[in-house]
């Protein structure tokens, strides 16, 4: 495919952004005059909450601040201390108690491990003040104050007069000042309070929490005063009707109460796409009654309106022009798309065509500013990155982004799930009669009014993972009321739970390979590697689509090179703690190796999660947690991208999109480990949710060796591929007798330009035998000691569980990466991040491996205990390391060698003897280690006292 030149693409993005900015302001700028309020404001903090009683709105504030911005971005607030009144649950209680954190609890060196740390912090009321001069030309016109995003409760006074309060977390705060701003000079005073007050959305809600964006205080985005005609267009909502090729525009007109009046209204839809049919205006005379008139106008969209979806995100602009009897004209313009996001059975559809949600979360993670961007360019970049990783969907976890995000998603063809700013759990509940119950309805109403015309806005829920005795009833009613109110969106009760028949779709954590609390009992940790399972049994009981909630959560080691990137209001002091811990344990030089090795394992786990979803017939989609890191909740490094949406060096978007894309070849491998006397029998299928069916495709497959050379291959029958998944393409049948050398083979299945790969491991069915004079034992008994004293070779391979807890036996070792993190999950297993080794080490010559975990290490990790290397010798360099949790950063080994007396001792934390006939990996590894010990390459450099080895085991 021909590539667009980079500079040209950048220019296109620039002009799109300019057009989006113009359209954003158009609702206020058309026929309006504006006073830009950005710049310097007077300012004062009110930590004792005495400003209202002290009538600060009548006084001149003494400090200054620049807006748009936050207190933190202006270096306002207090230094971080142990008394900082954070917003968010803190489960990392060890920080406040353990001696190892004592130095980070000292004034001047406060470093917290549970989230990014702001340079300054303030929670409470703060006051902002600006003097404005209203020109004589504004006399007799409507006037509004527009604050694009305030965080969060905003109370306004004009001069000495109170105007009112607004508290939306997800939409602009707009104040009608028509009666308050006569021509002349006035003082605007705004009090912003970022404390949880009447309604508690939940302290971990990403709309307010310090876990991600931070609980900031300020005003960002557009900030201005604007005029409008007294008789004006208040709101335009557009409802596409694809079947009848038309839209219904609901136009709300406001006017002063009084006698009925006449006006004319004109609608015209246009598109910048030259392929779009040129439409004619619709004009209508209307009668205005009362102070608000709602008109429903049907507007034909031509013979073949252009549709909006992820492949062709065609947009229209609807211009609404109101002319009153006095000839005063008011115009509003809104973009929209002709799209129908719906369901058929258990799958989602876009414009009647099946689609599959490949989503990630956005949890308000913006380390540079501590608040979300309001410019289109920033969001365009985020969606471009997501698309490069094969995604088409984003869920905004317990918050709602600014308008710029919707505009960028409209342009990108991204499907969005919005949430009404709440995670009512862990200190909050929903449905129990608290003020939050009414707030959720009000907030969702504001969100739909503000953003409902955007075709990218497809799904709505109250928020995340609710609690409360009556939450099921409340949320069921929430869904039913919205289904009746607005057909443009799909609705579910909440992200995570409860599942109810009334919802349009399910959001549930049931279909994923690692559940919260599953530990080592999960599929990926308890069952030998395969790719032939799916979630059919899980979803069989439901009649509508299921989206798997927060799949993945696979961790990677911190990238300490990131620390320098945190040059804004949030600093990675948590990374500094972890880096120091690694340095204290003498492993600072291994930081990058730990990152890359654990990253390869993380990517393997995500591939397994995503493919299981794609394999499931009739599945709706998945929402990753996450494509990029989540910096809070104890530091959850779950992204293949960092918080700045940059890759970390171990997987690219091109590689990731092999298993996450519109079209993904899939192989149902019954296992990943084979002997060369076996036959491959692998069913091949495809998940295809592209723009159209694929015609006359010939799927092909190859097996290649470690050098990339193709050793086996073939084709499957030519076929047409319809839209959907679990589409069977045939079966690979291949004998492995020609594979002589042990090692990895890469299975590649190609369907046109789409390829996917899987790593298989094949070992000889028979191994050479001989007397190598190596004593293989599971305990260091007198017999073993006698061999060592005589200068012999001993391979010690203790049974799993034999290592003392304080010597590494208490490490919860498993195959997969850490799930979420150990701090927030109360130490859920596994607590390790795979292995690190030198693949060229001669001990591994007959057990070929990469430097990181792959499927052939599943057996070892499932039958092993970690061993603390510093309990043996301070300078001991293992053959195979285990990567420990970054919080503890212990030097752990699986395989190491040393001299004991005159003899050579190789210690394996892996039990290589139990059930060996069922464990080809263990048999092959044992063979490789024995072969090494009889070679001249086996020359242990470290002498260890026998008591040290004895002291390892129970």
Automatic annotation (TrEMBL):
- The residues covered by the Glycosyl hydrolases family 2 sugar binding domain are 37-229
Catalysed reaction equations from the record: Hydrolysis of terminal non-reducing beta-D-galactose residues in beta-D-galactosides
According to the record, the signal peptide region is 1-29
Q: Top EC class per UniProt? A: hydrolase
What would be one Pfam family of this protein? Glyco_hydro_2
UniProt-listed PANTHER family = BETA-GALACTOSIDASE
Which family is this sequence assigned to? Belongs to the glycosyl hydrolase 2 family.
* Name of this chain's protein: beta-galactosidase
Recorded source organism is Rhodocytophaga aerolata
